[in-house]
């Protein structure tokens, strides 16, 4: 068995080499860390992160926003050309409860599981935990997106990850973990597509939506987009760096588990699915934790 595992690993490494990509999931030092610092790693797992996979997105350009004829389009989605000047890494999934809690609230303990409609009660609300914990409908929420997170708490997670990885000398020069800009988020979401969604077919094959009443574990059996990113449509809205004009609101993208009609494309589905679209822009009070808002991180050039 030992030799079989060694041979299998060698074949995998050869396959990746011929594919022109470098996959790093191993030691925090040596060639793996160098591949991250030099931006050569196509995908890597952040050490000691409970499985946080980061996928490289190459520099490029795209048309942001939606055409005037797109069903469900809103007035704040004017199209414009956007150039992404440098490659960056984006998390394969939304940050999960088991990834977030040890970093930001390591002393958190749910006290009244199954006692409330969302699985948690008022004392837990004030301790910064998620709305969706073990309940009558959720057996284990650890792989569910971390929601109920204010914008500042999402930023805090990113800053703590940056501090830790900088000390470990695993960051590319000038790069930090942070929330994506709106441009980065939509570029990663679209993955080269130009339509309403980043995948063809029924939304049920790639989105957690349609008034399901709760989040779902990340990935599941849903399809990723062409760049390997899951749940860019639905599950939870994802905080971005940007403010929504002068409103005091912060942008969040992607729609959530109570958005949209999954089955069919009847005439009214354009309205029902409007907030799930690649171009749709959500906006929320950054200081108010909501059970429909979480976040996804990027490892990208530091913003001033």
Task: Describe the model.
The chain starts with a helix and ends with a strand. The chain has two domains: 1-45, no CATH class; 51-107 and 145-301, paralog of FGE (formylglycine-generating enzyme). The strands form three sheets. A six-stranded mixed β-sheet has the order 1-2-3-6-12-7. The relative contact order is 0.16. It is globular. Strand 2 (41-45) and strand 3 (53-57) form a beta hairpin. Helices cover 22% and strands 17% of the residues. It has helices at residues 2-18, 30-37, 97-104, 122-125, 151-167, 182-190, 269-272, and strands at residues 22-24, 41-45, 53-57, 60-64, 80-84, 88-91, 175-178, 237-243, 250-253, 281-284, 293-294, 298-301. The protein is of the alpha+beta class.
Which percent range describes the beta-strand content? 15-25%
Indicate how many domains the architecture comprises. Answer: 2
Write out the CATH superfamily name of the largest domain. paralog of FGE (formylglycine-generating enzyme)
CATH class of the largest domain: Alpha Beta
Tell me, briefly, the overall form: globular
Give the strand order, joined by hyphens, for the main sheet: 1-2-3-6-12-7
**CATH fold node name of the largest domain:** paralog of FGE (formylglycine-generating enzyme)
User: Helices and strands: which structural class?
Assistant: alpha+beta
List the keywords:
alpha+beta; four-stranded mixed sheet; globular; paralog of FGE (formylglycine-generating enzyme); six-stranded mixed sheet; single chain; 12 strands
